[in-house]
Description:
By secondary structure, the chain is an all-alpha fold. 86% of the residues lie in helices and 0% in strands. Residues 34-38 and 63-67 have low confidence and may be disordered.
Amino acid sequence: MTELLQKLTPDILAMLSAAVAMVVFLRLGRVLANRDTMSGRIKSLEDRRKALQAGLQSRTRRKDKRTPSSVGLMRHVVQRLQLLRSQQADKIQMKMLRAGWRSRDAVVIYFFVKLCMPAICGIAAVLMFYVFGKADMTATKKAFYALGMVLAGSYLPDLLVRNVIDRRAALLRDGFPDALDLLVICAEAGLSMDAALTRVARELGPAYPELSEELGLTAIELGFLPERSMALDNLAQRVDLPGVRALVGTLQQTEKYGTPLAQSLRVLSTEFRNERLMRAEEKAARLPAIMTLPMIIFILPPLFIIILGPAVLRTLDALRNI
Length: 322
């Protein structure tokens, strides 16, 4: 037995040495394989940004693929007239962003429609008043109505864009208090600004897609713009609301001076909660004045008929019997 153990001992030691060497080799290989973890993290972050950008621009790309030839014709006409180099191009671009149209062709379509609508309205006016119009209408009235239609056609694109901006601003205003409360919760949970904006954008997607889109785009811009304040300034420019400007100022102050994010957002949320309460009280105080005219028109006349009607009928019967 002793001789057998003596014979097996070198083999056992060799096997143990080989196992230890294998474990050490595997460990070193894993460490060397994972040595450059920063590149992997950057690559995953870049893939996530591309996915978010693709999700934000999917609707715009689908719209662009539908009518490529017409948009190309519009772009050719606008470029020949050098409208994109005018002083109004930047302002129109900002209006398109506030309306939610992020496509590069939105400004081109706007300028083309702005250019064509007066001509279309003028042709329609000629057909309505000079070809198919009434014969007894004077020439002065025809010219006046035609000029009015041309002016209306020139202002119609601006009115449509303003209407879209106002409706979108109302939707953003409705969802902003919920977004601010969620930001407070995320900040108190220890999330950074980027992670908090991304989480809030994901949570608000079903209820407020417009606000979710703006916050998601801001979270993307915070990651790749050279200065983080530029992303916040872009948010304040795209969403022209006092609450968003106050939020941007608070976030910039947090970034610059290092104040606690949760505390700053909690103070801001309290201020907006008090402001919402004051706005509700103001609407309630205006309600009696608003209801006065409907009460006079729709409630008092039936009330007078019910009260005075029997007396009037009895009076008429008494006079008839005399």
